[in-house]
Amino acid sequence: MQGDTLKIERLTSRPQFLAAAKGVSQARGAVVVQRLYRTDDDALIRVGFTATRKVGGAVVRNRAKRRLREAARALVPLHGVAGSDYVLIARMGTTGREWDRLLDDVKSALTRLATPQGAAHTAAQKPRDIPGQDRLPE
Length: 138
Fold this sequence. Notes:
Layout: E1 8-10, H1 14-21, E2 24-28, E3 31-37, E4 45-50, H2 58-79, E5 84-90, H3 99-114, H4 116-123
Parallel strand pairs: 1-4, 4-5
Antiparallel strand pairs: 2-3, 3-5
């Protein structure tokens, strides 16, 4: 949002990734983006990348993370929120996804997480649809 004035670093340690997992998240197409707003009054944005073994072998996981790094390099300075930690998680289709669609997925998740109502909506759990619960008590 602030363009070139934002400073961006990498998340490097497991506790940083685990802390980001406690924030809000958005799943879009071939990527899941987690965001944790830090309360340290530092405008720095930190970004981490991960891919589980479900995505594939080491070669596939590394390719997925490389693609996510490039997408983040292009989009986080434009759509990231200062003072936040982001984790981009590769999904099954990350390596085979068309580049433009992958960029759309990341941009959509980042913009949704940047809006207060989007972040609040994601954090709140939706009630389950239970048959017979749609009637008001008499």
